[in-house]
Amino acid sequence: MNKRETILVFIFSIYVCCMSYFLYTHQYYNVDMEAYMGLIYKAEYPDMKIEEIHQKVYKELEGKNPNIFGDIPFVPEEEEVAKGENSYYRTLSQNPKAYEEELQLFVVKPFYNFINWAFFKIGFKASTSTFLISIVSYALILILIVCFLIKILKNYTLAIIITFLFSLFKPLLEASRHASADSLSCLLLLLSIYAFTVKKNLFSATIWGMLCVLTRPEYFIFYSFLYVLIFIYRKCLQVKTTTWLISYSYIFLSFFLIQYFNQVSWSTLFMNQFTKVQLYPVSQPDPFDFSAYIHFIKSKILFEFNSSYFPLLLLFIIIVLANDFSIRNKKSQIQALFFAAIYGAVFLRFLIFPLLVNRMMIGFYLLIILSVIYIQNSKVDIFKKSLQHGK
Fold it and tell me: Which domain of life is it from (predicted)?
């Protein structure tokens, strides 16, 4: 780097630090925090009774969300997605047994829970530990994006300007201001794609992919589509069939382990989240109602997709691909099928969990935007070298 580029990188570093501090001091209260804190205490104190864990969690949260503790009047007329959800979290704050079963809904993100526990072991409060990784992930996402853009654009100024705009992207900021696995899973997804495409390292991509699935299991759908695409074009990408099989086996194993230890079935989770809230989803689950499922899907599908960024991004994808598209060109085929894999994964995920909250979709959003930038403006061909022989 020359002197000018060094100054730009220094300014960018200061900016990322300032944004990280802003996010630290402007966190939303996310009710999921209550369950994540309980899992931290369960991991740290395995012999502690649920009543003690319940007391520690809500004592630490006292004053952070007055609505739960009754300082703000409860409004039963507020619109509900699932019947009973308006009073659900207040009930959890008063009922340790119901709270204990609530924890089972959140054990399906083992890597995120492990990171939370690690921050707690370092010395942070349990409540702080649940959102610190979102802020760290935000900073690392920006660093990863600027490194990728510098590599493909060969222009430090342009790369930093684009990354600055990414840093203000509303879904990314929302994800970073919540105690959730959204930012971490986005980081791991981008790392896995970066390792595969830029670093030409399938082993590293597999590790990051496994951690992504262990953070948000629904990303297994996208990885499955992606591995099918890699298999079809394995000769072009110079990926051996054996290597491909071993890599996907590890991704599948990560997802299988989560499902094996998960005590809450998908049908129970759906009924609890979208029809009627169950206080005891493990011991007293409601029976699955297929007609209610179909009704909810039909009522939400247009609204959810139209309120997301996917239709707008699809417009830009079509414009960019149509500029130099040939059905016989394998490069064009791979690009089109890659975007198809993203949209196919999003649609299938919607059928399983019919919500497209923007902060949960941030990984797909960034992947689409960065791919479009690469196709339209890249000065280098990152697929030119094979995975076996590339650096």
Answer: Bacteria
Degrees, nearest 5: CA angle 133-17-195? 55
CA-nearest of 163, 188, 183 to 173 is 183
Measured CA angle at 89 (ends 172, 58), to 5 deg:
90
Q: Which helix (H) or strand (E) holds 180?
A: none
Of residues 248, 196, 232, the one with CA closest to residue 371: 196
DSSP 3-state percent helix, strand, coil across the chain (nearest 5): 70, 0, 30
Tokens 């840093």 map to which residue?
167
Q: Helix, strand or coil for residue 83?
A: strand
How many C-beta neighbours within 10 Å does residue 63 have? 8
Q: Helices 110-122 and 32-44: crossing angle, nearest 10°?
A: 70
Domain ranges of the chain: 32-377
Instruction: Report how far residue 186's alpha carbon sits from residue 171's, in angstroms, rounded to the nearest whole number.
Output: 11
First-to-last alpha carbon distance for the chain, in angstroms, is 20
Neighbours of 92 (CB within 10 A): 24
Q: How many CA atoms lie within 13 A of 289 on its CB side?
A: 12
Indicate whether 268 pLDDT > 90: no
Per the DSSP assignment, residues forming a β-bridge with 83 are: 276
Q: Alpha-carbon distance 360 to 186, whole Å?
A: 9
Q: What are phi and psi of 124, to 5 degrees?
A: -75, 155
All residues at 6 or more sequence positions from 149 whose CB lies less than 8 Å from its CB, including other chains: 158, 159, 162, 163, 370, 373
Neighbours of 249 (CB within 10 A): 12
Give which of 267, 258, 269 is closest to 217, Cα–Cα: 258
pLDDT, one tens digit per residue, over 5-18 is 999 999 999 999 99
Instruction: Return the amino acid letter for 28.
Output: Y
The string of DSSP codes covering 110-155 is HHHHHHHHHHHHHT--HHHHHHHHHHHHHHHHHHHHHHHHHHHH--
Per-residue tokens: 5: 């580029």
Spell out the residues 6+ positions from residue 103 whose beta carbon is closer than 8 angstroms to its own: 35, 38, 39, 42
| CA 252 – CA 189 distance, rounded (Å) | 15
> How does pLDDT run across 124-154, given as a tens digit for each residue?
999 999 999 999 999 999 999 999 999 999 9
